[in-house]
Structures are given as C-alpha cells and as structure tokens.
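Hi D.,

Good news: the full-assembly prediction came through. Inputs first.
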Amino acid sequence: VSALRTLLGVCERDRVSTNMRLKLPIICFILEIILIILFGVLVQYNEETDAKEWHKKNHSDYENDFYYRYPSFQDVHVMIFIGFGFLMTFLQRYGFSSVGFNFLIAAFSLQWATLMQGFFHGMHGGKIHIGVESMINADFCTGSVLISFGAVLGKTSPVQLLVMALFEVTLFAVNEFILLTLLGTRDAGGSMTIHTFGAYFGLMVTRILYRPNLDKSKHRNSSVYHSDLFAMIGTIYLWMFWPSFNSAITAHGDDQHRTAMNTYYSLAACTLSTYGMSALTAHDGKLDMVHIQNAALAGGVAAGTAGEMMLTPYGSMIVGFLAGIISVLGFKYLSPILEEKLKIQDTCGVHNLHGMPGILGAIVGAVTAAVATADVYGDGMKDVFPDVASGKVDASYQGGIQAASLAVTLGIALLGGLIVGFILKLPVFGAPSDTICYEDNIYWEVSLTVVSESFPTHFQEIPGENSVI
Amino acid sequence: VSALRTLLGVCERDRVSTNMRLKLPIICFILEIILIILFGVLVQYNEETDAKEWHKKNHSDYENDFYYRYPSFQDVHVMIFIGFGFLMTFLQRYGFSSVGFNFLIAAFSLQWATLMQGFFHGMHGGKIHIGVESMINADFCTGSVLISFGAVLGKTSPVQLLVMALFEVTLFAVNEFILLTLLGTRDAGGSMTIHTFGAYFGLMVTRILYRPNLDKSKHRNSSVYHSDLFAMIGTIYLWMFWPSFNSAITAHGDDQHRTAMNTYYSLAACTLSTYGMSALTAHDGKLDMVHIQNAALAGGVAAGTAGEMMLTPYGSMIVGFLAGIISVLGFKYLSPILEEKLKIQDTCGVHNLHGMPGILGAIVGAVTAAVATADVYGDGMKDVFPDVASGKVDASYQGGIQAASLAVTLGIALLGGLIVGFILKLPVFGAPSDTICYEDNIYWEVSLTVVSESFPTHFQEIPGENSVI
Amino acid sequence: VSALRTLLGVCERDRVSTNMRLKLPIICFILEIILIILFGVLVQYNEETDAKEWHKKNHSDYENDFYYRYPSFQDVHVMIFIGFGFLMTFLQRYGFSSVGFNFLIAAFSLQWATLMQGFFHGMHGGKIHIGVESMINADFCTGSVLISFGAVLGKTSPVQLLVMALFEVTLFAVNEFILLTLLGTRDAGGSMTIHTFGAYFGLMVTRILYRPNLDKSKHRNSSVYHSDLFAMIGTIYLWMFWPSFNSAITAHGDDQHRTAMNTYYSLAACTLSTYGMSALTAHDGKLDMVHIQNAALAGGVAAGTAGEMMLTPYGSMIVGFLAGIISVLGFKYLSPILEEKLKIQDTCGVHNLHGMPGILGAIVGAVTAAVATADVYGDGMKDVFPDVASGKVDASYQGGIQAASLAVTLGIALLGGLIVGFILKLPVFGAPSDTICYEDNIYWEVSLTVVSESFPTHFQEIPGENSVI
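Then the structure:
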C-alpha cells in the first residue's frame, strides 16, 4: 500500500509538473517582453532596410542585398520550419510536438539570436543593425538549437526547450564570435558552428538528462507508416534546399554560385551511398527509412565548410559519398553503443546526421583551406580566404586555424551542454515522466476521435444516410 | 409515415441537387470561355513581358521586374495553393474538398481578378497590361476569396463557391480601386483590402447561409490526429512566406527589404504570444492545435498595412504580440458567442485570424502613417507615402485616410456579403443538406477501402503470402 | 503436390531475387564511383562558378547567372523531388517506394545527366563546364526519367530503375542534342524533349514488361483517403512551380517573364476544364481525385514549347483548356483501352498527363513558330527564334522543324523504350512477382505497428495511465 501511495505521489507530482497552464504562458510572455524591450533599445534597420539611409546614397535598386539573399533566406526558412519540423514527425504519437515545439523554439530563437549575434558581431555605434543577412544568421543559429532538440525529442517539456534555446543561442553566438571574428575561420555553411555545435551540445544535454527507465516508453519511440511519410516531407525539403543553406551568406557572385553547386553534387552522391549502405547493412536487404530520412542529408552537412572553397565537383561528390557511408554506419552500429555504454539517448540520431558529418566537414574544410593556392583562386581568394589574400596568414596556417576551430567548437558545445543539462533537470520545468515520453497527449489537446474509428464510421454512415432515403 | 415521406422527399431533392454532373461542367466551361474571350479582347503583354516592347528600350536584363518580384510571387503562390488549401484540411472528412475546392476557386479567381483589377487600375489605351506584378495582385485577390471560403467551409457546393468568387473578386477590385486609386491609401500587404475584406465578406455570407440544424453534422466538424498534421503544412507555409506576401508589391529596394523583415519579427513575436495564450486559456494547460494553426499567423495579417512603413523591428514585434493574444481570445471566447448569438457559423474562425487582426493592422497602419516624418523617412518618403512626399497631403491626413479606408472596406464587405449570401441561397447551386456537411463523399469519389481496414490487411497479408511459400 | 512444389520454387526464386542486400549496394557504389571518376576527369567549374575565372573579368556580381536562374532552379528542384515524389504516393501501400525510389533515381540521374548533356552540348576544350544552367538541365533530364518511372510504378525494383535511368538519360541527351543543337528546335519547357520523350519511353518499357497476372495485385493498385492527400502535395507543387519550370532556361529578361506568365494562365484554364470534365464524365457527377491530381497539370506540359513564344495570354489559356479536356478523356476512356488492347499497364497514367499533352504542346509550338513575324517579335526575335532572326531559316521552316522534332522524339523514345524494356527483363534485377506489386514491404522495412492498432491503443492507454494514478 505504501508503495502504491509512493507511486501515486510521484505520479501526482508528475501530473502537476507537466501542466503548462502557468509555466508556458509565463515564460513565453516574459521572454517576448524582454525581447521587445531589448529590440527597442538596441536594434535598428541597417542601411539597406532603412528608408532614409538607403536613399541617401546613389544605388540601383538591384544592388540591395535583398535581391542577392532573400530567395536563399526563404529556402533556409523552409528548412528550419518545415525541414526540421517534419523530419521529427516520424514518431507515431509525437507529430504535434515535433512540428509545434519546433515552431515555438524556432520563433523564439531567431529573435534571441538576432540580439546575441548582433551583440557579438553586428554592433554599429552601440546599435545592432539588421537586414536579410542577419535574418539568415538568426535562422542558422536557430538550426543549431533544433539539432539539439532532435537529441532530446520526446523527453522534454516546451518550457525546458525554451530554456535550452535561451542558453544555447547565447553559447552559439560566443562560439561563432571566437571562430569567425577572433580566429578568422571560414565556415559559411556551418559544419562546425551549426552542425557540430548543435549536435554535441544536444548529445551532452541528453546525456545529463539520461532516463534509466525510458524503455517504458519504448513502444511509442518508433514510427508508423504514415508518420514516416510526413517525415519524408522534412527530409526532402532539407535535401533540396541545402544548396541554398550553404550558399546563403557566402560572398556575392561566383561564391554563392559555386557553393550551391558543390552542395548539390555532394548531396546527390550521398544519396547513392546511403541507399547502398542501408540495403547492405540490413540482414534481408530491405531499406530502412531511418537511414533514408537522415543519412541522405549528411552530404549537405559535410559540405558546410568547404562548399564555398574550390572543392571541385568531384571533390564534393567524394565528401558526400563518405558522409552517407559514415552516417548509415553510425545509425546501425554506433548509436546502440552510445545508448548502452555512454547512456546517450539520442532520439533522432543527431550524432549520425550532424555530429560525425559535421566533424568530417570541418576536416575537409581544413584540408581544402591548407592546399589553397593563388593559382587556383586568382583574385577570388579575397572572397574565400581574405586573410590569406591579404597576406596575413598563409594557406597552411589557415588550415590549422580551421582544425583548431573544430576543437574549440567541440569544447564549448560539450561544456555548454553539460551546464545547460543540469539546469534543465530542475523539476519546475515540467518534464514528462519516463512512462509518458514521446507522447503528444501530455502537452496537447488530442482529439479522442481516432483514425481507425472515424474512418469506417465515415463510410458506413454515408450509405446509411442514403439507405434511409 | 407522412413525416417519413416528407423527409424522403427532402432527401431526394437534396440528392438530386448536390449532383454536380451538369452544374459544375456548365459553370466551369462557361466561365472559362468567357475568360478566354475577354482576355483575347482586352489583355496584352506589358512592356516587360512583350518581346518587341522590351527590346525597344535599352535595358539591362536584370532591370526586368521579373527578377525583383518573381521569387516573392512564387512564395505568395505557395501560400494561396498550399497554405490556404492545407490549412483547411484539419477537418477529418473534408480534406479533398479543402485542397480541391481551394484549387478550383483559386484557379478561377486569379484569371477573373486579372480582368477586374486590370479594368479598374491597369488599363493602357483600352488594354489591360499584365506582368508579374499583376500576377501577384491576382493572387492577392484570390487570397481574399479563400478567406471567405474558410468561413463557409464544409457547407457549400463547388458551384456556390465559384459564384461567390465571381462576385467577391469584382467587389474586391471595386474596394481596392476606391482605396488605392481614389483615396491614396497605403496597404501593401492587404490588412484591409485582403484580410478585413475577405473575412467580413465571408462572415456575412455564412450569416446569410445560416443553418439551424448544422449540429447534425457536428461530429464531422472536428479534426483527427493526422488531419491536424496536414493542416500544419498549410500553417507553416503561410507563416514562413508571409514576409514575401507583405513585401511582394512594395517599391523596389529598401521597401521590399524592410517589409519582409518587419513581417518576420511580427510573426515570431506572435508565435510566442499564441503559445502562451493557448496554454493559459486551457483548463489543463494543454495547447490547442486550432490556436497554433491559426493565431500564430495573425502577426502577418496585422503587419499587412504598416509593414512597409518605418514601423521599427520592435514595433513590429509589439503588433505581432498583440495580434496573437487577440486571435487566441477570439477563438476561445468570441467565436462561440458569434455562433450562438449572431448565428455566424465560421468554420475556420476567419474572424479571429483575418478579421480582428486585419482591423488591428489597419489601425496600426493609420497611426504609423499619421506620425510619419521627413526626418525618419528622408527621400524614402516618396516610396512609402507618395502623397505626403509630394506635399499633396500631410502625414496626419494620410493617417485619417487610412482609418477611413477601414470603414469603407468594412462597409463594402458587409454589404457585398449580404447580397452575395442571398444569391448563394438559390437551391440550384446544390448546397449539401445540414446532415451531410463537412463531408467529401458528397462531391468526390471516395475510396471505400478505408485506412483502418487496409492497413492491418496489408501487413497481415504479407506474412500470409510468405507463409504460402 | 508437384504444382505446389513448382509454385514454391517460383516463389522462392522470387524471394531470392527481390532481396536487394547485394544488388543495390553494388549498383549504387559502382555507379557513384564511375560518376566521381568521370567528374574528376571531365568536369570543371564554368566561368561563373570558378573563383579565378569570374574575377578575371570586370563584372558586377548581379550579372552572375546565379541570380537570374537560381530561384527557378530551386522551384524545378522542388518539382522533381517533392512534386513527382509525392504525386506518386497515391498508392495505398507504396508511399515509401514512391518518394524513396524517386529520390534515389533522381539523385543518380542528375549526376549522370550532367555528364551526358555536357558531353553532347557543354564541352569547352575537352572539359564539361557546369553552373546553374547545367543544373537545371540535369534536373530536366531527371524529370523525364521520373515520368517513365510513373508508367512502371509499383512493378519494378530499385535496381531496374537505376538501370533504366542509366539508359534513358543517355538517350534523352542524344535526342536533346539532335533537336536543340542539330535541328535548332525551340523547346524551353520540354514538351517534346522532356514530356513526350519520357512518356513514350516509359510506355514502351511498361509494354515490354507486360504482366499478364497483374490483377493479383489489383487490390493494392488504388488509393486510400490519406494517400490521396499526400499525392495532392505533389500535384499542387507541380502546378505552382510549372511557370518556373518552363521559364527556367529561356533567355534572360522578357523571355523568362513571358514564359512564366503564359504557363500561369495555361494552368489556371486547365484546372477549370479538368474539374468540369471530371464531373461530366462521372455517372454521379462526383469529382475523381485521379483527374484532379494529374489532368490539372496538363496545361503546364502543353505550354512547354510555345510558352516562351508570343503565344498571348488568351492563347495560353486555350492551350491549357484543351489540355485539361484531353487529359481527363484519356484517363477515363483511353487508358482502359491501352491496357486491355495494347497491354500497356500505365500505373500513373503518364500517357494522359505527359504523352498527349506533350504532343499537343509540340503541335502548338510548331504552329506558333510558323506564324512568328518580325512585327510581333521585334528585336526579341533573336532570343526566341535565333535562326529566324539571323535569316538562316524563315518562320514557316522553323515550324516545320518543330513538327519534325516531334517525330524524331517519338521515334527515339519508342525505340529506346523497346530496347531498354528487354534489358530490364533480365531476372537478375529483382523485379517483384505479379502477386506482390505495389507493395513497399518487398524493398522496405515497414513497421508492424499499424495505424489502426496504434491509434486506439494510444488514446486508451493514456486514460489508463491516468486512472492508475
């Protein structure tokens, strides 16, 4: 009886704690009001969005950065909200949360990222100047948070996720500042700053939030037929628009053009190796949707740093080809080990999609930078490696900086994830108990009319109505 | 027995009247043939789409308006066909009609809008000149019709919808002409011309088409799990591309750039207030998909007029924040009252997503216009407020015009909806009876193989086949 | 008993042959490695993607072709991967394969097409130069392969599809070379090169692969409610972005602008005639999802050749109007005849969507070319009909060339399909037997948890858990 009473108590505490009636409104309203105040104090239109400033100079309209970057921005935006959101709907009972929490934390993160990134590298006379490039950067930072979300998917409350986003965006901006501004690292598509950072941060958080009894929710931690189709919407959008992602903030002209094309071929090659590996590693040769949904994207991650460089098309294909192989092997053999031995419960397998391919991308970037020559880059060197072009450093040193940046990123991500993980353990944030993970019903009104009841009723009723006639 | 006989008679009449075998082909063919004839007589390529005219002058290719606006046009196009179409698939048994009728009436409306808008403000020497800007405007007008469609969703035949579109597009063009041409109102994103007009027109139509026995179809007027996921596709696309919507026809350069950015921040803020309010107004703190799907978009509607102005980023966020709050409150408390007291059966809650946020947007626009100064706008004033820049009116007068335009829009929408509502009551149009609303099976061939039967059979059969082996 | 034994033997052979454990990895890896080698030897960045070359000349950044074509490229990319992929998810048990095999063969084809098209019309000093235009062309060629995939959908293994793609891409490039380079044919949107070619190639392949006992899989060759909604995602994306498809590689300026607009109006008109015809040809006036999903797109196909010409808006609408009518009639009356009499089992009805509308488009193109005058085209003639502008041929001769090109295309497609069909019959490729066509479970791990079980369990469990409390 006392055991039951204890259980009751635990459950009741759980029931109370997962109730978001006050917690979620309070955090949403406080965060948004703080954002509005800080934007009011700190943020201004930049020269290209301000009516007065833009008209002071004698530009042609088509020189406005909007026309160079807005189409890429919208593609990135689709990746963030549709791509990440639907990719995670593969869970059978967690579709509302996957798309819905993705939506919430992305909407918060992009505002907070505008401030944090602006604070670290966008200040002009005490003000943060914003335009389409800062919007892309804010979406990029948001992407990193969503990668971490993938690691803890199904096991966190929306309040926890907002708190995680608050800290992760801040640390992202710090790491980005160290790499891009202090060290002069090149990482246009964010193999390091976005993917490696987001993955290892999230993996450390999920390690700290380790749930020993998670197997009680195991039956919900899988897909059903139609949930895998919804997830493919996310996959395909990520795949298609990754060329825009990697090229969105590179220099105008040949750089954007080349980056998009390198990524296009990297992804295509990655898809073939993913399909091959998926069939090869299955005992009956059947393709596994988990691999197709994730590993086929690794080529985009791995081309994130070197994509803007003169990687050559076949070089891009080699990178993508390897990324697909590594990623499938990770899903098949490494993830179970990480879970069992290291207690890392990585719901979406972000280590395989963003972690290892991110590291691969960083290494490829370092090597490609180290072998850069004036003969290959010509006057384009100043766009891709400004420090090399200006003579500040030589190419091999640039390569060394790239490699060091990977170490810095890993360090900040792991340490940050450690600290934030412990913060998220506070019971006040309303995490679900181990028995009700991967379940929309905790945080969402879910219709009690279910598919299997409504549909037959549906078609039985209609003849019924007619038969009355 | 005689009661049964009467019922039988009614039902039989219904059965006859909802049959679209002749009605739909007749109206489709007649409308399209009229469109083709009128296009043949009235419509010409404009200077930027005509092979001869474009090459007469010495332009650079990149000066063609196509490159300034086509990416935005395609985003708007996605909002019209995917956004509106899938947003309405939340109903459990009305997915075919939601996407399919949306598709039909949009395809008609954009052609008819080209003529009506061209007639009122696109004539050059007796001909309507068309290009990408007229295509965007036609899509905008179509959006207004689709908003009204949301109010009557599930209760109308496709023929009724085409007739409604025919009249609504015409009245839309009249209202737009009065505002933009006669009064000199600024409304680039259409808070008034598109959202307020479409919402109140549709609300009046659904009021006139009031169905006292609609509760007989109540069990179908709700969502199921996967239909809410389909609806989220619509929501997210509308949310992502709203910056393109509001900026699609603003002036080139800083104006498009600023409008897109203002809308981006308005929507982000709106999302946080929506989530907060949704949890706050639920007795158990659970999020309601209806709010997330709709209210999170109100920030785009509310930034429709002032988005192109120097609203400032934090001003945009305040507007979005308020719009989300108003919209959730509307869904929670106002809609039931409107239905019970005013007999307005608003299926999608367009009053909460387009009506009230549209009015908010109009008011914000009027205030922002009234406080415009040369100090803030500089030479950019001529793009945003040409009448103020030219000295024709002063800023506060422009603000007054903006406010008056809201009243004009409401008047024309309500009066128009009243008249069109009565026209739509004609039994010849084949509306469904009260018992079979929200039901695809009336107008679509629906497979009798249902999900719940096919899927288990599916997986049982496969082993079965193998076991034969 | 011996009959049973024979059956057993056949089935076992089937079971072995559909196992992809080695076949798929081998073909994927070999193809990709060959691609990488050939890219390494033959492919180079073109002047607009090469860092050194681009900076050699004194351009403005906005003159880079990337800004003219990349937004259109991304729209085409969406059509290829989401459009074609989801259009084919209408089958109840073949969603994974529809999206997944579409993904695989498209990722292969676009790489192979880069080489084949480059070899035939992109060589510069022994090297293939690539950039955004070659990427669009590669996607176009891929589209043709996916059309053929639609004809054989559900009846082929992924290995067969890759082999088909290998040959079809090659023949596509040959046909394209004959038309565009040797004959000087105009076909920017590919009514002939893409749609007619892909359709008749696929129809011949499916004819050769005729399965007399396919009716044993008949119960799976149909849609269920939600699979039709997934398919509508594909349809709507194809419809929306077809203006980008047809205009993606036309000349800069008025040409891209006009082509997009012509296609927009052609599609709108096509939608109305499709809805009308669908209701008219149903005995009960109910709309058929097959027509809406397919025939409404015929207007895009039919505007593929003449779209860039001075077709006029009303001319475009007439073309679209006719295309919709032809296409619905094809689905309703011709497809059953083709299957019964000619033994052409055309799963997606590509003859109705791509075959006949492609021929219509070719004819419209020939007529429009034949009547072209300097009075209408002015100096724009050199963009649309360079051979006419240069005086090499006159307009009526150009029209004759266009017509001849249709015949050439049909010849190469049918002959090519014949040969490739016989190659695909080799049992080593692992085609499914007649009893297990249209079935994901052959080639994919499909979760045994099914919708109808998981959902009720889901909602029953939750109260259960709470009631324990």
